[in-house]
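Quick question about two entries, pasted in order.
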Amino acid sequence: MRLSSVFTISATFVAAAVLSLVAASFSVELIEDNSEIGVRNALDDNGMTWAEVEANGLQVVLAGVAPTEAVRFAALSTAGGIVDAARIIDEMEIKATAAIAAPRFSAEILRNDAGVSIIGLIPASTDRTAVLNRVTAISGDAPVTELIETADYPAPTGWEDALGFALTAMNRLPRAKVSVQAGRVAITAITDSAEEQSELEQELSNAAPPGLRVTLDIAAPRPVITPFTLRLVRNEDETHFDSCSADTIEARTRILNAARRAGLEGQVNCTLGMGVPSPNWSEAVEQAIDALTQLGEGSVTFSDADVTLVAAEGTAQSDFDRIVGELENGLPEVFALFAKLPKAADPDKGPPEFVATLSPEGLVQLRGRLSDENLRNLADSYARAAFGSDNVYTAARVVDDLPASWPLRVLTGLEALSELSNGLVTVTPDMVVVSGNTGAPTASTNIASLLASKLGEAEEFDIRVTYLEQLDPVAALPTPDECEAEIAAIVAIAKITFEPGSATIDATALGTMDDIAEVLRICGDLKLEIQGHTDSQGREEMNLNLSQARAQSVLNELRARRVLTSTFTAKGYGEEFPIADNSDEDGREANRRIEFKLIRPEPSPPQSETTLESISGSGDTGAQEDSPAEGTGDDQN
């Protein structure tokens, strides 16, 4: 074969091979492009724009960070619908998930006459058995419902203090709901009286650990007023309520507006209570007060549905008849009116009277007239029972011409006198007058209710009772801040000194300790820190120990004087907090001291609402804690 033929054949094969390679290359590129574009479009259409697609020959590589494992699987499925699943190479990653946050621990404790229930989520580190034992002890014989779950996470700061305080508070609250969170306790409760409400709020506030935020929502129910009483007196000098009762806020507003039209001035306490005889109480009271305003002077008294209108002596009979007639026709149903126009007394004839006097020392004297010997013995016995056997002196005489109602009027007057701290009761055939001072805010209302119910309709009485805060055993108590200031004043006059270099209180300072103990007994429960301080002479550690020993010595002296010190702490601060320059003797003397400081709760930052709170309710309060202060000392460290 010739050479040219061989060359021609070889060239033909080479050309064919080249053409095949070119065709194959174009085919691969076409397949890659179509696969990559098709898969990418499909993923984008399904919102998976995070996925990256790259074709490598017949293989399709998927990369990128999928939000979840489910989304990654969906991307593979979507790509498998465009190309053969065997051609897909999965290089996708899953987005890292955040660490699971600890749950918000919280609990609710509910207590009523039916028992105690506790529900919530508490840390596993909390002694669940101990909690249930305390709840069972609080419940007594009543059943306990326990719905507590635990989670194995660390207890947050303030959780144990909050739970412990909640259980302590619940032991004092027969009807309450307590919500607990770390560092926060919300208490909702109801008491039987306003006095108990005030006492309970002060007790719980003092018992709260420092740094715990406490919300107190303690309510006192409206009292049941029996009889439902109101009495307004109007004379030439003033207009005043001896007693004011209303069933609603709107009724109270209506009554007070009518009284102001009659000349009432200043702030008035009108008690909201239950027991109103008619929904039209305020309408009837308003009409009666307006009638009294037209009469000029006199009094109007309501005892349930009985209305007594007494005009002043000298009121024109025609005016009296007209005003009373209009009032009788206008009063709502149920209400019955008794109107009285007193006749002028004979100035030459003194009316018979009985007088009982109560002195500030508690001594009672009975003078005047009584209808018979039995009444004198009865009045004497009643007074001795009410005021003490050794405190009563009877100098009343027996006469024959007294009204049949005299015994009732005398004994009712004595009962009214027992509501006062000191005062006077005068009984005449037409009037019972009670005057004096009291430390009970409700005394005037109680006396008005008593006289209205005991004396009956159309009987006239006068109440001139003054409330004095210094006689009120609750209001007269000094506040914690006042107690702290009074102790500071005592220490400023006479320091608590110690024997040189020791924790033994000097004999000259024992009188100061007596004065401080007397103040603390009056102040009652206080959260108090007794602080010991020294000057800077000597070693720091020695000064710290000495100040602690001296503070403890003061605490022991108070205990020896029978002061309740369960809420007191003794702490030494050594030379850390000087109040004067330690470079001279006067400054060092000032720095050696003992101080008494209230422990005030410290506010915590607010926290967001828990899941349990959204079901059960929540709340918070704040407080703050003093930094260490100084105290008194001796002449040497």
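Here is the second entry:
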Amino acid sequence: MIRLILADDEPIIIKGLRKLIDWESFGMEIVGQAYDGNELMQLIEELVPDLVISDISMPHRTGIDIIKEIKQRGMPVSVIFISAYQEFSYARDAVAFGAIDYLVKPVVKQQLEGVLDKAITLISEHNEEQKRKGKLQLLERKSRHEEMQDALIQLTDGNLSPNTKSFQETDAQLQGPRYSVLIIEVERLKEETDRWTEKEKKLIEFAIGNVLQEVIIDTGIGYVFMKRYQHVIVVSHDEPEEPVLLAEDMQGKIETFLKLKVSIALSRPVSELIKLADAYREAEQAMEMKYFLGLNRVLSFVPQGQPQSFDKELYNLQWDVIRAMTSKAWPEVQAALAVWLDTIKNETYGNRSLAVSTCFSSVSFIIQELSKSGVPLSERALDKRELQQLLANFETFDQMRSEIIGVFEKTYKEMDSDSGNKDKIVLAKIKQYIDEHYSEEITLESMASMAFMNSYYFSSFFKKHTKQNFKQYVTEVRMRHAADMLSLTDLMVYEIAEKVGYNNARHFSDMFKKMYGKLPIDYRQDTKKTTE
């Protein structure tokens, strides 16, 4: 419907115009009426009509005054004037200023209908032209935005030279003096992948994009683009703390309007556009920190130190868990598990892949040693491939930690409840003692006494369960510890011999070569070569 305002200082004229024709049949709606020039201008501002039919001679402001202001302000309002005969030349001037036409009082219905047809045509043409211009402007903005997105993707990849036109145009749009990169990641989409269709994922992407359009693009502070299924934002700002405040605002709006939880990772500000590749890498590394800190957070990049080797500490903690599992109450097992897992988290902090791989190898070692000790384990616990996939799928370290503790709790309860495993538990305790006291004198008789068996029966019992004789087993334990010392310490060979229970260094070297195929000094040199 075309919105129409009628104006005349004589109410009877307005009343007559209302009744003169069927306005609705012309697709018009009378939205207001005015009785002087000031009132008419106020209604035009408030109601934004498409068409005004007004007396040309009005109190306070004339028709010429009204049409001049409309044109000066660029308001899309068409005007038809009504004039007395003596105002004929005045009305012609009004047409020159842009009025559609004029009618002489008294207004004749047929003449009014003819002028309205003309007005409808002009208004329709104007609207179509505005639509066409709007579409062109939209396409231009979309094209410029897509070009900017492409340039920013190349910049964050480190593939855009400062000498290119794209770089210079981007530099002109993002004027600094600081630039930061933010990455947005929707929580829990990974574990719900099977339940989210591609269409639903696109809708989520679109909905978040709308929020970011309002916060980032419409305010002119930066640009948004998709990269590796994540929303990436490049913002230009003055103060260093602005990106954090912006991230908190975006996170709050996404949760309020979309009911979605997201983590937002931020780089440190950089002072040059060419350094956006470094900033993007920092934002990626900051996003990794949610694995250690938890979900639905704003994560600022913090430089991490170089990881230090903690192999020896980890080895000892693993044996603490094994010993607790085979000989202690569950609260003590929990304590050993907590120290072991806390150490892994602290030593791998900031490096998710290292945390997962360390947990996998460490759990595998404990399971392997428990199995060798005769502890009954389920097929699932022994399946390394399933274990690796399981540990890799957790979104946080604490989720992985809970699962690992649950696996060991189930194993412990099965060990504790099955009376048929007594022999295996006895054997595990014997092996634990040997591993703790390998540097001391260990005899068949002393171990038999610990197991409450005579020497002959214990020897048979040990071989039945381990498939090797007692002396051979003790020797292998000592040689394994010796190999660890050769790899991890700078102790002399004779010192290592003493620490693993040998008073004669030559005899120790002969036994070591028999097991590993090389003398201790050669083993140490070969190990160092493989780690260099």
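Reply: Residues 311-436 form one domain. The chain has four domains: 2-129, 174-300, 311-436, 437-532. Hope that helps.
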